[in-house]
Amino acid sequence: MSEFKKPSAAELDRMSEDELVELGTKLDGVEIAHREPRWPEEIKTRAEKRAERSVTFWFALAALLALAFIVIYIAWPWHYKGWQDDGYWYYSLYTPLLGVTLGGAILAVGIGAVQFTKKFIPAEVTVQTRHDGPSDDVDRKTIVAELNNSWKTSTLGRRKAMMGALGAGGALIGIAAIMPLGGMIKNPWKRHEMTIHGDGTLHTTGWTLASSERPDGLPAEKVYLGRDTARTFPDGHVPEGVGRLERLRIEDLAAGGLESVFPLPASALGDFHAHMESIHGARNSVMLIRLRPEDTARVIKRRGQEEFNYGDFFAFSKICTHVACPTSLYEQQTHRILCPCHQSQFNLLEYAKPVFGPAARALPQLPISVDSEGYLVANGDFIEPVGPAFWERKS
Ligand code: FES
């Protein structure tokens, strides 16, 4: 800067934009070694029109893809469908279509920006020396002039179609990027039909079907403790009457053993798809544990849950009361259940009360019994919500 005499305010006001740009670059220690506009100012050549169409195409494509993402996100059938259900193929395309449209929109706007820079921004080689300290008035005024000049030389101002496509693409991609947040806005207390998942609120699970006080007012169903056989049918054809869950008898589990079980309503025996729904129920999984008789004798039961076990059999929700990971690591020597997420430990001999780690509440216990045929069944629902804390829970 020292080699220039700073212009006075009056001189600055008299200077044209080009002169301010030149002054600004010099004041910044910037030397423009080469600068050449890509296209002549007024005459549009065919090559220029072709370049403009190409850039406009990419921005318009970005806008279209972003719009398609928004429409698919809102209107495409996204509710879970099983392999043989009507509409399965539409449902299975939901996630790929979201990925392709949003990814394509971002890619298209990127290609358009690169093409625009290469084809319309003047070719320029500049050299700048670094300097320290804040900018003064002269610098600020000249930088504004430089920015204005950049805008003009970019020729964007006179390319209306390209500007429109760029604006639409940018706006729609912005909307598409924040739209998925809308899916997180839900009313957690809106009740739906009571199904093998519960009724959609945090107070219910598939085991609620066995409750004598069901929220839908219907009578209690018989709900077996269903063991997952992990049976699959890779060709997609499930034979009639073949289920995935199986009922358990007490002799099916050895002393000291643990089995993961899911609600298996009597009305859904042999219904493979209903069983898969049960397994996918977020709050459904339960640990059935058979203690050794000498350990059962040491058990301290929680008040109000004295009759919840059936002999040596105890059933506890698998959903950790910290932040809902599955707590299925059972150490039978110490009788502790470990949650692998943050290492909470629950003492089975004391109603699965937490004894280590961040979890603050015991795992809810499912009341169980055995029916006249010898199968293990739920003897009602949990008496408290499963999983982590939420504002409205009272226990
Ligand atoms: S979720 Fe189990 S300890 Fe955090």
UniProtKB/TrEMBL annotation:
Organism listed in the record: Dietzia timorensis
Name of protein: Cytochrome bc1 complex Rieske iron-sulfur subunit
InterPro entries (alphabetical): QcrA_N (IPR045603), Rieske_2Fe-2S (IPR017941), Rieske_2Fe-2S_sf (IPR036922), Rieske_Fe-S_prot (IPR014349)
One GO CC term on file: plasma membrane
Family classification: Belongs to the Rieske iron-sulfur protein family.
PROSITE patterns named among the record's database cross-references: RIESKE
Bilayer topology: Multi-pass membrane protein
Location relative to the cell: Cell membrane
The Rieske domain, residue ranges: 283-377
Transmembrane region(s): 55-76, 88-114, 161-185
Molecular function, one GO term: oxidoreductase activity, acting on paired donors, with incorporation or reduction of molecular oxygen
Source organism phylogeny: Bacteria, Bacillati, Actinomycetota, Actinomycetes, Mycobacteriales
Protein function: Iron-sulfur subunit of the cytochrome bc1 complex, an essential component of the respiratory electron transport chain required for ATP synthesis. The bc1 complex catalyzes the oxidation of menaquinol and the reduction of cytochrome c in the respiratory chain. The bc1 complex operates through a Q-cycle mechanism that couples electron transfer to generation of the proton gradient that drives ATP synthesis.
Keywords of this entry: 2Fe-2S, Cell membrane, Disulfide bond, Electron transport, Iron, Iron-sulfur, Membrane, Metal-binding, Oxidoreductase, Respiratory chain, Transmembrane, Transmembrane helix, Transport
